């Protein structure tokens, strides 16, 4: 907890005010307690740190094993309680850890797309978020983030800090059927992605461009 709180304070008051002009909306939608799965789109390696800084829940993010190959990042993810997962999805240990975190009323942060979209818009989700939500029967908080992928130094010198937007939607309770099938997981995953898309500008909705605009985000 001390590492998380220290990192959050450093990000909010030192790091991100220098790097970005951060705008956050929808904080009122974040539950004050109880288990929660935070599901966000993914545009930049800054995303989990930004979300951990500005979303008022201590969040254990799911991190792919490649991020642990860089020593400073490995230390950061370890101190922040990140859960390491393999790309092939054949390791059950992370799933058990995530279920334990949720059973203790904790928050798990995941990126349904499984990789960065690199400014190309939303992609179809992997089944991870849907499966965890179905197994745990825990609500999902859809979040949209964009702008942190703009690291062009020349543009910064002309325009100043790039704007980063973080929009938090309303909590959703996934409709989990009695028998968990691939079709049911796909339906949950698609629902999550449509809710994230509704929080994004239309140009970033990708394959979910037809999603309607989001509701109140104040």
Short description:
The protein has about 220 residues and is α/β, with parallel strands linked by helices. The chain has helices at about 1-20, 45-55, 70-80, 95-105, 130-135, 155-160, 180-200, and strands at about 20-25, 35-40, 60-65, 85, 105-110, 140-145, 165-170. Helix 3 (about 70-80) links the parallel strand 3 and strand 4.
Write the layout of secondary structure elements.
Blueprint: H1 2-19, E1 21-25, E2 36-40, H2 47-54, E3 59-64, H3 71-79, E4 83-85, H4 93-103, E5 107-110, H5 128-136, E6 140-146, H6 153-159, E7 163-168, H7 182-199
Parallel strand pairs: 1-7, 2-5, 2-6, 3-4, 3-5
Antiparallel strand pairs: 6-7
Helix pairs in contact: 1-2, 5-7
Structural write-up:
It contains seven helices and seven strands. Helix 3 links the parallel strand 3 (59-64) and strand 4 (83-85). The chain is α/β, with parallel strands linked by helices and 218 residues long. It has helices at 2-19, 47-54, 71-79, 93-103, 128-136, 153-159, 182-199; strands at 21-25, 36-40, 59-64, 83-85, 107-110, 140-146, 163-168. It has one domain (2-208): Glycerol-3-phosphate (1)-acyltransferase. Strands 1-7-6-2-5-3-4 form a seven-stranded mixed β-sheet, sandwiched between helices. 37% of the residues lie in helices and 17% in strands.
